Amino acid sequence: LCAAPGGKSIYISHAMHGTGLVVSRDLAHGKLPLIEENRKRTHSANMRVEQGDATVMRPEDAEAYDLVLADVPCSGLGVIARKPDIKYRLSPDDLRTIIPLQQSIIRTAIQCVKPGGILLYSTCTINPAENGEQVDWILGQGGFETESLAPFLHKPVEGASPETGMLTLLPGVHESDGFFMARLRKKKGGKS
Fold it and tell me: CA nearest 2: which of 114, 142, 98?
């Protein structure tokens, strides 16, 4: 969900070694050609590009996916070094309205995950309200539990506790922009 420009979808496609299907959706119709161009350029044949509003649940998507990556719109505070204009255009109202938008997308994502499946939640911000607090909100909905990220890391991340199922990367501390990710597993028999 919220897939443009398609890099994470392509990564998942390649990690699947041509098996299965990656459905890469974005709301902005104008961004679809870019995702499709990147899909073709990287020979990601097991990837399908679709237009879709991540805040609207499609009945056919109910518990249909083994893994859902919700790479939600965010304040972008983690990439401010590369995009300094963020500090001039981001307002307190923007920060107040982004949380409900993220939760609307998360509601859809939760419903799409099969029992026993994985929800990956990610942002490019370091704002706790958009990160850990959203994970707490997901857990409060019932049916999900965090799952360690440690088995998926190639090396330890300074100052991180990936066994919590959450990881925050900080500019100036890690060789990265600010980024957040969480891994949650849908309990079998868990509610959607």
Answer: 98
Cα-Cα end-to-end distance for the chain: 17
Catalytic residue among 2, 74, 112, 124: 124
Active site residue 74: no
Contacts (Cβ under 8 Å, ≥6 apart) of 8: 69, 71, 122
- Phi then psi for 66, rounded to 5 degrees? -70, -35
- Strand pairing partners for 113? 65
Global pTM?
0.91
3-state secondary structure 15-66: HCCCCCCEEEEECCHHHHHHHHHHHHHCCCCCEEEEECCCCCCCHHHCCCEE
- Could you tell me the CA-to-CA distances from 175 to 8, 81, 166, 179 in Å, in that order? 19, 13, 18, 11
pLDDT digits (tens, 9 = 90+) for 105-164: 999 999 999 999 999 999 999 999 999 999 999 999 999 999 999 999 888 787 788 899
Distance CA 82, CA 76 (A): 10
Instruction: State the residue for tokens 């890391």.
Output: 153
